[in-house]
Amino acid sequence: MKKRVGRPGIGGQIATLVASAVTVAVLAVAGILSTYQLVDSVLLKRSSVEGTAYVFAAAVADHIEKGEIPAIQTALRAIARVPGVVSGTVYNSDGRMLSTLGQRAILESDVVSAETSFWGLLTHGTMPIAVNIIKGGSVAGKLVLVADISDLRSTFLRTMTAVVLASLAAAAVGVMSSIPLQRRIASPIHSLTAFMRQVRDTKNYKMTLEPQGSRETGLLMEGFNSLVSDIDARDQSLRTLAYNDPLTGLPNLASLQVELTERIRMLGAGGSRDIACIQFSVDGFRALSHAFGQKTGDAILLGIVNVLRNELAPADFLARTSNNGFALLVNDRGRAEATIAGVHAALFQPSAIDGSELHLSLAVGVTLLPQDTRDVGEALRFMGLAVNEAMSAGTGRTCYFTRPMIENAKREAELAQALRHAIAGNEFSVHYQPQMVAATGAIAGYEALVRWHHPVHGSIPPAVFIPIAERTGSIAAIGEWVMMQACRQARKWVTEGQPPRTVSVNVSAAQMLQSGFVRKVRDAISSSGLPAGLLCLEITESVFLGRVLAPIRSALTELRAIGVTLALDDFGTGYSSLAYLSELPFDKVKIDRSFVSRIHESPKQAELLRSIIAMAHGLGMEVIVEGAETYAEFNLLRQFKADQIQGYIVSRPLPAEEISAAGPAIEAAHARRA
Ligand code: C2E
Ligand code: MG
Ligand code: MG
């Protein structure tokens, strides 16, 4: 650290200032007065010696004229007796010295410097005075007397010594009398300095300083107090921001980490025996807040916080850990399970959010400590992996962390990366599965099913990569590509002279809710030249789950207006299948394979399927049943009046070239069996 060279403190500076000011002032005043006095005395002496000089000049004038040197000498001797005159010298008019007398020899320079300066007089201690000797109106010579002024000089020096001593005494008195003033000014500043140093060292912004000293220093201290309390307030709000979520007021991820660290440290040592770390994630939150805006998104989150808070026990710790994620620490596995069940049950009813009724659900991921880990970072990661698994499994699911999830997540991340290059790398293809008219055995259309051949991992099923593409955003590009391929292929079959058959394209939630989706469908139709009536969009039930139906309904209505057929895919796998059927403008219902595989289990299951088909017909919709694998199933579905049947019994999905060739054979085979 840079060490500051200490300048004297403010007190020392004041003392120095006072001392110098007093000394200079006293010295200056006394010095000027003494000098005046000295000059005065010198001038007085000069005029008295000058008077004497004139008298003697008159006396020696005749002697000069006559050249009477002894007489001049005698006169000079008389001068020597004059008090204060130490020597005298007479010169003739040519400047030649005629006679001199005195205690000191007169130097030529003394004569020349008869008008010598004040300081010259002081250093010599004598004063030369020259007067002209006049005879008969003209200058006959010059008389130079040298006066002794050493007494004046000593008086001056004595006075000056006294002045210096007096000024030093005055300075001392000045300094002494400035001490109270120093105290008044310097001591509040010292207190302030000490206070600031203490605040800096302790970072305690709660301290205040008692105002003291003059009005100005008092104001200064009040100013400092208010600055420090402003810093304290700002510090508090920064701390609040750093550890709390501004929307919900809940602790944030940083707080959760601190809390979890502490709970892990206490595990078994006075704390609980285990900890359940539970992560909740709002299903489809991104799509919801995109569709309805941030305000509704915020209202959803606040609603969820209320639901979670209702299930909390005092020792639980709830935090908001991400945009749509909450984490809960519970000190007991059993209680954790009850809490999760309570939350799911509370969300079973639709929630009133911002004037709309929304079906909300939470994906829940749980990791149990200490058996899964004792590391905070890992615990957060594990509950994240578990919640991802729950989201992939459907809506409103709960998953507990298991080790294979780590590998799966790595593989998923790899696949997500690979998906980004798969279109450009020509790794996708489209297979087509025939949809047969149950009554006639004619092929009514084909479902386009995407296939991915990964250069390293080989064939990867859509059930694996489509959810990844949905989560990572690649689905829009993949879906667009499939739609274009399917439309072109169907158009090609028409051009080749095949009977007009529909092509059904699967549309995923993320794809459908994207802005511009309807325009993209229109583009695919117009650029391929396929009649709009030959395109069917299969939209799976999960698209609608937890969403307000109005904007979806308007998109579907628009698509229908273009002439596109709409099928509700995987009917019966969600919670609200019937509601969607009555509220959305579908032409076709595609009953999920699970119904077909159960029809031989019990007469009730068979009856259920028959009733669903009848009900869909009652609503004026066409019914297609998927997943028929055997003739028994096929025949039963025909009996139940399913309009179309899709399944391995008709054909597996095949590449376009094979379908072109196999189409008539498939129809012929069915005709024979029928
Ligand atoms: P999906 O739309 O319900 O398609 C029917 C799935 O059932 C296909 O599986 C098909 O091969 C399979 N299937 C048909 N008949 C039978 C049968 O008799 N028995 C059995 N066990 N399975 C049968 P695939 O091709 O693996 O596709 C799975 C799902 O992936 C599709 O279900 C669909 O949701 C999705 N998918 C496929 N292609 C696309 C696509 O291009 N875009 C989107 N968004 N999703 C697609
Ligand atoms: Mg489908
Ligand atoms: Mg399906």
Mean pLDDT: 87
Low-confidence stretches: 1-5
Heteromolecules bound: ligand C2E, magnesium ion
Straight-line distance between termini? 97 Å
Q: What profile does the largest beta sheet have? A: 8 strands, mixed, barrel
Oligomer: single chain
- The number of helical segments is 22
Please report which band the strand proportion falls in: under 5%, 5-15%, 15-25%, 25-35%, 35-45% or over 45%: 15-25%
Proportion of helical residues = 55-70%
Please provide a written account of the structure.
This protein is of the alpha/beta class and 674 residues long. The protein is 55% helix and 19% strand. The protein has 22 helices and 21 strands. Strands 12-13-15-16-17-18-19-20 form an 8-stranded mixed beta barrel, surrounded by 6 helices. Strands 6-7-5-10-11 form a 5-stranded mixed beta sheet, sandwiched between helices. Strands 2-1-4-3 form a 4-stranded antiparallel beta sheet. The radius of gyration is 57 Å and the shape is rod-shaped. The protein starts with 9 loop residues before the first helix and ends with a helix. The N terminus is likely disordered. The structure holds ligand C2E and magnesium ion (2 copies). One magnesium ion (MG) binds next to strand 17.
Short description:
With 674 residues, the chain is an alpha/beta fold. The protein has 22 helices and 21 strands.
Draw up the topology in text.
Layout: H1 10-66, H2 69-80, E1 85-92, E2 97-102, H3 108-112, H4 118-124, E3 126-135, E4 138-148, H5 150-202, H6 215-243, H7 253-266, E5 275-282, H8 285-292, H9 294-310, E6 317-322, E7 325-330, H10 333-346, E8 351-353, E9 356-358, E10 362-369, H11 376-393, E11 398-400, H12 404-422, E12 428-437, E13 443-454, E14 458-460, H13 462-472, H14 475-495, E15 502-507, H15 509-512, H16 517-528, E16 535-540, H17 549-562, E17 565-571, H18 577-583, E18 588-591, H19 593-598, H20 603-618, E19 622-626, H21 631-639, E20 644-646, E21 654-655, H22 656-673
Parallel strand pairs: 10-11, 13-15, 15-16, 16-17, 17-18, 18-19, 19-20
Antiparallel strand pairs: 1-2, 1-4, 3-4, 5-7, 5-10, 6-7, 8-9, 12-13, 12-20, 12-21, 13-14
Helix pairs in contact: 1-2, 1-5, 5-6, 8-9, 12-13, 14-16
The structure holds ligand C2E and magnesium ion (2 copies).
